[in-house]
Amino acid sequence: MGRPERRERWESAFAPSRLAMAGVALSAALLFQPSLVGRAVMLACAAAAAWLSGRRLSPLTTVLVMAGIVAANLVVPIGRKLGSIGPFAITEIALADGLRKAVTFEALMFISKACLGPGLRLPGRFGAFFAEALRGYDRILERKASIRLDGFLKSIDEILVSVYYGTETGEDSAGDRYSTSKSAIRRGDIALALAVAAAYLPLFIG
Description:
Blueprint: H1 3-13, H2 16-32, H3 36-52, H4 59-74, E1 81-85, E2 88-91, H5 92-115, H6 124-142, H7 152-168, H8 174-177, H9 187-205
Antiparallel strand pairs: 1-2
């Protein structure tokens, strides 16, 4: 199944507002998760959800970002020395803290990819601006592959112009693509409730 098909199935399975609320609840559970293992499990589940949602994922970027966070944390050595890489000392507390921060950051990124989409509607002007920003962000990501090194600036300009005029003309509006009854209960709502319950379970039995 290709990425567009995965995205279509994901968007038809979940109401945008309920998916966003589940994302907030899962993010809170992640931040209160006491163990690194628990956070790593949530990272893996969030990455799988982001993939199922049809979002573009880059394993290399994820690894590089996590490595950068851990390396930045090791600059200040804290705790028992475990080893060294050149002039840098690897210490126990600094390493554990860096891993916790890296896993948490990437898990939050994947949760946002899976749970926030252009179909989300918030009240007021800010809500309209937020939805429009998400739609623009999605369009930019969709055309990212068309960026060329030769004529780099021209490629970026073409993408931004197409996104701007697509927004101005109301192309692919959220109201047309995601119009659903707010009171309708979907099967996806049960899945969201189970996911949130599973995320909070370690907080009560730990």
